[in-house]
## 1
Amino acid sequence: MAVITRPLPVAPRPKPGELISSWLGRTAARYDMDDAAFRALLLGEDGRGRERLDLHLTTDEVARIADAFRLPPERVATLGLTQAWPRVAVDWLPGVGRKMRARGNLDLSWCRKCLEEGHSSGGTYLDREAALPLCLCHRHQHWRVDCCQHCSPDNPPRFVWDKGAVELACGDCRRLLRTPGRPIWADC
């Protein structure tokens, strides 16, 4: 299997407090790649991906990501949820496998206002709080949502490159999740 062995020509930096999966998903979108395929190239995985990558990175994963993104390994190592919140009860974090939910390695929820702020500052992303079982965004006092409001998704949300910016879209109906409306990518 091919693996990225050189620095990426376009290597976006992680946003403050961003989830690892969000950062890698945004980068995959910049290269018009599926997140799982990008992670397979980056980390040498079989394509399915290691579960709960957002919790912590192995030493090998830190080294590969640091090399590809031209970042100090110490910076990459601090991105995991268990590094940011050493006492987080990881077994209590919402998991996957429930119908009618956005599925992924962690069951995520997001605030549309937070996504909109990310969009206005250059690209939508998911912060660490998206992995926590929260119902309300503490910054905006808005309800967090955990699935597309237009369909019952079977696939996780996906970052896509649209009109010069990264967007988070439903993996099934392809609608924007920050302001649900128009589909944004063609049938594959």
## 2
Amino acid sequence: MTKKEFEKFIAIQNIDTNKLNLVTGEKKIIPYVTGCFEEDGVWKIYMVGELQDFDIVQEGTEEEIFNVMSSITKSELNTVIINFLTYKKGRVTCLTLVILFLCERLVKWRRI
């Protein structure tokens, strides 16, 4: 996946990367951020910890890095959904909405 394909994926899915603490294309030293940037033709994924410690966790081509960023994004979305379900545990209406939401996402992911 290229950067343009990733940005298209984010737009189609209507994902707010700020809420997921994800950054693309620049370095941001903000606690709990995961992001990627290009430096001298090499793409890098980084993570920032609680104490603003900046660690590069992977380097690679644009396609390799954005495949990983796509996986991270999907994983973060799943975590948000699981947390939401845990918080609203036992409410049938809430569960129905989440199931509809997931079905809609699956349909959109298959179109990409």
## 3
Amino acid sequence: MKIITAISAMALTLVGMRPADATTYTPAGTFVLQGTGLCTLTVTITVPDAAPDVHGSASHGHSATAVPVLGPPSSSLCASATFVGAPYAVSYNGGNLSITGVTLNTVAGNCSGDIGGIWDDIAKTLTVTQSLGGGAIVCNVRATLNLISGAISIIP
């Protein structure tokens, strides 16, 4: 069996592909992150259960979606800004967590792109460092989002 696995991995490498790396979010469920910058940003992450699979029978998932919402505003601009097209896909590369394909409509114009930053799996925080740069304007998204509901671990 080891020989077949080695040959399969080598064949994928030769054609420029590699076996999929499955990020594991555990447990499956709904988790809420929240933080305040200019506006309060709340992100609800949903992880569908993939168990049982090759990664075990305990509750876990290999994909996630996110729904960001701007909450009680500290600025009048926050009240008029809305995310459209949610839920958005979530990706993780072993240190950086990104909410991809986000569109934010504001009174000044629309912006789009990914909201991302550094995920600390011990502190359960997302330090957002990536702003929405596409669209008519650039929207700066800067905050540290803390896990306020649920308990999640992310394993690359």
## 4
Amino acid sequence: MDTSQTAGLADEPHSDRATAERLYRLALQAFAGSDMELSAMRPAERAQVLLLQAIYHELRHGRGQAGAQSAALAEHSRVLNTHSEALTDHADEMDRLRSAMLGHSDALGRSRR
């Protein structure tokens, strides 16, 4: 394999996804530049090409799914924090009401004496 086209990939500030996309495009260009059609390949070679394409697309799909899951978890965390703040406010209000009721109970007890 000619590595001159991929030699600088490790040094460039690309994400893994961008690097994978670039390598995939290079592989497609190399395949398109060959005289061999997919249908003319031996069954084992054709299977390898198709399996590599399937793996590539599955990894892209998985990366997208992971991103969507991360976004959903971040939103869920934000909502939980909002609920936690509301519960803290509610607990503070209940403490305030408890103190007020104790004060009222004491006042009623003193007035009955």
